[in-house]
Amino acid sequence: MHNGRPFKSYAIALGPEPEGTKRRSGDGRTPEGVYTLDWRNPNSNFYRSIHVSYPAPHDEEAARWGVPLGGLIMIHGLPNGVTAVRVGHPWNNWTNGCIAVTNPEMDEIWTLVDDGTTIIIYP
Prior knowledge:
This protein has a single domain, classed as L,D-transpeptidase catalytic domain-like (Beta Barrel), CATH 2.40.440. Helices cover 11% and strands 19% of the residues. The chain has two helices and five strands, in the order βββαβαβ. A five-stranded mixed β-sheet has the order 4-3-2-1-5. It is globular, with a radius of gyration of 14 Å.
């Protein structure tokens, strides 16, 4: 979004259980809600990655019951050295709960989106 209007859109891949709110570490779901893109890793195991500030305070209800929430939710490109066809991107949800795009799309996002940008993830 830019000035309240859609600016770009991408076909994404999520985790193997993409429907429903993330409840615990390893559930294969992507968190839903309002987060911040707060830091980036140019040397990730995936082509570039930008961190999503999960877990946020609104995610911590499950943690109060001793459930590990997980972390390291990222927007990233393809696994290093792997093609989109090999992982089935974007028609196959192949991440562990992250948001994946192609490497050229990740280059665009990397360039256009600053650290501190709000991301709203919704079903």
